Amino acid sequence: MLIRRIFKSRLINYNPEALILFSFLTAILAGTLLLKLPISVQPRFFLSWIDAFFMATSATCITGLSVIDIGANLSLFGQVVILTLIQIGGLGIMTLSLLFLILLRRRSSLTTRSCLISLSNEVDLKNIRFAILKIFLFTISVELVGAIFLFLYLQQCHDLNFAIYSSIFHAISSFCNAGLSIYSQNLAVFQNMPYVQIVVMVLVVLGGVGFIVINDVLTLFQKKQDGSRRVLSLHSKMALLGSAFLVVFGTLFIWLLERGEQLSQLPILHQISNAAFLSVTSRTAGFNTIDISLLSNATLFFLIILMFIGGSSGSTAGGVKVNTIFVLLCFVVSQLKGATNTNFLKRKIPNDLVYKAAAIVLISLVFIAIAVFVLQITEGIDDPLRYGGSNQNFLILVFEAVSAIGTVGLSMGATPTLSSNGKLIMIILMYVGRVGPLTLAFALQRISAKTTKFEHPEEDVFIG
């Protein structure tokens, strides 16, 4: 009854962007207050307001950047607060994505509605309560299975209670693509344990492709009511193909770059597993089994690209999204071929989607550029050689900024040492990176739905 009232409320129907922005902001502020309670921290540890705000934002926006040692500095209550915020952030973004689809179907044109029907497939958008319950049960089921698989190994490393707790914490953090860990060195303790890495990677990938894609795959072999076979939507095909390509190519590229460096001391199997792990988590989760600060500049630059791309639309992953980049690549290929339309797998991609994809990428780049510029000022005032020299400062701060706006969580070690102003900038980036793409997509859809009464005269300009 409550969900139906919320769905029919003026807030959602007339200002859905406000729903997205304030729902996450409310969770962040509540988390900040809870983390500031004395019961949330270990004795003799002081958590400042800016650090509490930072950690609440990182957890709710499922980013993974941390300015404290969660396992050592927070009490069990504080860690549970972080875990709860991660779960709220993960479930929240998938639920809001579903609301986004429902509202678009209500307002959009007949062509857009037909695309959304294909996209949503078997998700019952007519019954929002059932759809949200389906997402909730799916999330809990995957996290529970993941926790069981992690426990089968962790019980050999820890006592029973901590093994259960660690399994649950990291299963939720993995599926929600948060990347936060209760281990001081993140998951570097499992560098030589491919089993744990594989379980975490599977959870990260499932969370990174999203509920809609997985539901599309699971219903693929079911027949429709008219007896015809189902097919994957174009959205699902892009998400799966793009994700598979980035994982495979990323693994190969990272292994080639680091096999003579950080991975050189590991057996070949462990080299591949760690390269694959970094390839998967660098697009969204932020877990790491190797020291990021010791990677070569070429690898760091490649990771920046992966972090910027992120996971699939409508998932717990961040970044500008695989589908966004896919649409732009299809547009470029079509232009090179001299085609007037943007096509992929014998399907035409609407021009307005191409424009929105370009807008999302451009706006994200502008945010990164502004943030890095400001960070160069705020973090270089007292000590220009703080991170190893001005040139190294630039690369490190770019890496941290992209990690924040991509809600990835990988760090070269600079985030905990940032000034209060620097942490505030990173908080803004994490918040924008989490709610920005969805809010922007919604706003662009609302704008494009308005019909203009006139058009300006057309005139050519020189480009390129």
Report on the architecture of this protein.
A hairpin with a 2-residue loop joins strand 1 and strand 2 (347-349). With 464 residues, the chain is mainly α. It starts with a helix and ends in a 15-residue tail after the last helix. It is built from 18 helices and two strands. The protein has a two-stranded antiparallel sheet with strand order 1-2. The radius of gyration is 22 Å and the shape is globular. The protein has one domain. The longest helix has 32 residues, at 76-107.
Keywords for this structure?
mainly alpha, 2 strands, two-stranded antiparallel ribbon, 464 residues
Give the topology, please.
Elements: H1 2-8, H2 10-14, H3 16-35, H4 49-60, H5 70-73, H6 76-107, H7 110-120, H8 128-154, H9 160-175, H10 194-209, H11 211-218, H12 234-258, H13 268-281, H14 297-309, H15 322-336, E1 342-344, E2 347-349, H16 351-378, H17 390-405, H18 420-449
Antiparallel strand pairs: 1-2
Helix pairs in contact: 3-4, 3-6, 3-18, 4-6, 4-18, 6-7, 6-8, 6-9, 6-18, 8-9, 8-10, 9-10, 10-13, 11-12, 12-13, 12-14, 14-17, 15-16, 16-17, 16-18, 17-18
Order of strands across the main sheet: 1-2
The mean pLDDT is 81
Q: Beta-strand level of the residues, as a percent range? A: under 5%
What's the β-strand tally? 2
- Tell me the radius of gyration: 22 Å
Question: What number of domains?
Answer: 1
Helix/sheet category:
mainly alpha
- N-to-C SSE series? HHHHHHHHHHHHHHHEEHHH
| Largest sheet composition | 2 strands, antiparallel
